[in-house]
Amino acid sequence: MKIGIFDSGYGGLTILSKIRDRLPQYDYIYLGDNARTPYGTRSFEVVYQYTLECVKRLFSMECRLVILACNTASAKALRTIQQTDLPHMREGLRVLGVIRPTVEAIGSLTRTRVVGLLATDGTIQSQSYPMETEKLFPDIKVIGQACPMWVPLIENNEHHSAGADYFVRKYTDALFAKDSRIDTIILGCTHYPLLIEKIRRYAPQEVNIVTQGEIVAESLADYLRRHTEIETSCTKEGTVRFFTTENAEKFQSSASIFLNAPITAEHIAAL
Ligand code: DGL
């Protein structure tokens, strides 16, 4: 069995690369639903439907464990898939998200107990981060700011442009205008590490900026340690295959920028 990594587009590559640094021995299948990205502006029902289709697709391709390397899908689809869909599928299939491990990590990072969240509109609207945080750290306040232009900038490879500076500054300023006590920012969208240099430029200097790759990789390592029945069923040849619902050549040329290495991708239709 391989480990499936899913995102609406290229963003999950930031998670995949950290997972492969931490757990290079396993075999992975990456699926980007680039044909239907972005998810961040879509309704609950649509994100759920698209995510479920892609998860089923990964299950049909030798994956037994799928990581939703997408906050929007984790916020809007994970719970329903785990509670409503998985019980009707074959035994032993698992889906994990990225929000819970991120929230677990912030408790030790903030001193002021005021944390900023930069994410898609869908993730902000879902209130998933404040709700998860309330369960684990009731003394931490999460202030959210939706950044609807950031994913399109990244998906169109415009994130290094001067136009990107305008939108990075706009949403970063809007976040700090809501509460100047914020000492930690969560980049709550797997695309956003691509903008980290610009975010650092416009955020106050002393602020911690939390990206999710290493956190999710560590949490997966811990999960596999605790679930030996899944760990022993994972093949260990260190391979990765990339699939996209868009054109494979287009995915290859953009993905190689994200990963700093050439890759080969294959086109696939969502189920
Ligand atoms: N990378 C996805 C996330 O973490 C988002 C993107 C989208 O809007 O498609 O939320």
From TrEMBL:
Active site: 70, 189
Group of enzyme by EC: isomerase
Catalytic activity line of the entry: L-glutamate = D-glutamate
InterPro entries, sorted: Asp/Glu/hydantoin_racemase (IPR015942), Asp/Glu_race (IPR001920), Asp/Glu_racemase_AS_1 (IPR018187), Asp/Glu_racemase_AS_2 (IPR033134), Glu_race (IPR004391)
Pathway(s) where this gene product acts: Cell wall biogenesis; peptidoglycan biosynthesis
Positions of substrate binding: 7-8, 39-40, 71-72, 190-191
Segments forming a coiled coil: none
A GO molecular-function descriptor: glutamate racemase activity
Keyword Cell wall biogenesis/degradation: yes
EC number(s) reported in the record: 5.1.1.3
Function comment: Provides the (R)-glutamate required for cell wall biosynthesis.
Keywords: Cell shape, Cell wall biogenesis/degradation, Isomerase, Peptidoglycan synthesis
Pfam assignment, any one: Asp_Glu_race
PROSITE patterns xref list: ASP_GLU_RACEMASE_1, ASP_GLU_RACEMASE_2
One GO BP annotation of this record: regulation of cell shape
Recorded family membership: Belongs to the aspartate/glutamate racemases family.
Protein name: Glutamate racemase
Designated gene of the protein: murI
